[in-house]
Amino acid sequence: MTEIIGKYQIESELSFDTLKLKKDGTYKYESRGDSCWTWSDITGTWKFENGII
User: Fold this and answer.
1) Which of 23, 32, 34, 51 would give a disulfide with 14, using CB separation of 3.0 to 4.6 Å?
2) Which residues contact 53 (CB under 8 A, 6 or more apart)?
């Protein structure tokens, strides 16, 4: 299995988002748009099955 645990970044002119996949099966997605009024954090669980997260 390819190692997928870690931090991923999505960068564009209007946002700087990160996705953190943790070994314990949880994740945190930090949405950081161009205004702090629209920022949000999303958490949950994930699993890797048949090559799909």
Assistant:
1) 34
2) 4, 21, 46, 47
